Amino acid sequence: MVLSVRAVESLSEVGEATWQRFANREGSPRDPFLSYAFLSALEQSGSVSADVGWLPYHLVLEDEAKQPLGVMPLYLKGHSQGEYIFDYSWADAFERAGGRYYPKMLSAIPFTPATGQRLLVASSEHESALVAGAAQIAGEMNISSVHLNFLDQAAWQRRGDEGWLLRTHKQYHWQNQGYKTFDDFLDCLSSKKRKNIKRERRDALANDLEIQRLTGAEITEAHWDAFYQFYIDTGSRKWGSAYLTRSFFSLIGATMAEDILLVMVRRDGRYIAGAINFIGGDCLFGRNWGCIEHHPFLHFEVCYYQAIEFAIEHGLSRVEAGAQGEHKLARGYMPSHTYSAHWIVHDGFRDAVGRYLEEERTHISEEIDYLEQFSPFKAS
Q: What are phi and psi of 242, to 5 degrees?
């Protein structure tokens, strides 16, 4: 069978029915970030576009009859912002040597450091064809590199077998060990950590704060207005500008509200803080947080403890609380490997990056081993 890969500059060129057929296949945990609703909202809202350095360039694998066999979310990037996997030093080194690093090709969920599938196909044979097509297009377009970010471990290992450069990273994830209640989780912690969490939860709500968990039709435009104010305030302080537009939140609220958990905090009838989470088939993904009033430990309550409670109540196996944050360790979120794979077109540059990644993988593993010594859980 002769297969071909073509690129499209809008998800609408693929169509919702075709995309959804591959995005959340039967037998795989549902991933809200791969849904047509989420990715098309990014495009329709202008959160991703050529103007902001995220040109959609999704790939479609087809047979001789032009029937789709798989798809791949892909972007031509004019920078490395909003990725949570850092290659700025690679870009600097390549360009100082006379190369052109940007644009590069990136398969990822924009602004979302969450593990998931990137090669959306029905068979492993088609997966190899799709990823080979991406590398071929990069060579034909004189693009420096292709990056597959936040892969699941099995797909990451398969890319290594095909000659891709392999990279590891560290996040903090909470794992559900069959807890029935939040107290069951606390009972597994050391006495000191258990007391600290109880104190933090009590102090977080000391100033007559009210927490609301909202999902589905409970989320209104008024909630999005308030949350966007928090998001803009935090985003402008962290990054200098916020990536997501206001209309993005209205779009996901209209098309995928059942996949959203919005945790909002109110004082004296006015919303003052909130966090957005996305509900997967077996995972709760914590994403953005913001506030306009600062209260001790409120961030921990809204982002970490409320997420754990929700996961326990709904039988989810883990919580991914986003990038960075050694402070998560004391609150039950353990260090975990995450994975990416990279195709570098230039042979010499590829060799240099490969040597760097070999050392980096060792360092990441050693760091995770070290951090596990500070586990808040009782010794088994």
A: -90, 140
Question: DSSP assignment of 184-195, as one string?
Answer: HHHHTB-HHHHH
Residue 8 and residue 153 in one domain: yes
- The dihedral over CA atoms of 78, 79, 83, 85, expressed in degrees to the nearest 10, equals 130
For residues 164 and 53, membership in a common domain is answered with yes
Selection from 162, 75, 87, 91 nearest residue 124 by Cα: 162
Say if residue 25 is in the same domain as residue 144: yes
Tokens 């540059």 sit on residue: 349
Examine the domain organization and report whether 370 and 259 are in the same domain: no
The CA angle 17-20-22, to the nearest 5 degrees, is 115
Q: Which long-range contacts (CB under 8 A, 24 or more apart) does 176-180 make?
A: 176/311, 176/312, 176/315, 176/316, 176/317, 176/318, 179/312, 180/312
Q: Are 71 and 182 in a shared domain?
A: no
Q: SS3 for 164? A: coil
348, with CB counted inside 10 A (0-12, 13-18, 19+), is exposed
Using an 8 Å Cβ cutoff, are 191 and 376 in contact? no
Same domain, 342 and 276: no
The SS3 call for residue 71 is strand
Tens digits of pLDDT across the chain (380 residues): 789 999 999 999 999 999 999 998 877 789 999 999 999 999 999 999 999 999 999 999 999 999 999 999 999 999 999 999 999 999 999 999 999 999 999 999 999 999 999 999 988 789 999 999 999 999 999 999 999 999 999 999 999 999 999 999 999 999 999 999 999 999 999 999 999 999 999 999 998 999 999 999 999 999 999 999 999 987 666 555 689 999 999 999 999 999 999 999 999 999 999 999 999 999 999 999 999 999 999 999 999 999 999 999 999 999 998 877 889 999 999 999 999 999 999 999 999 999 999 999 999 999 999 999 999 999 87
Q: Is residue 298 part of a domain?
A: yes
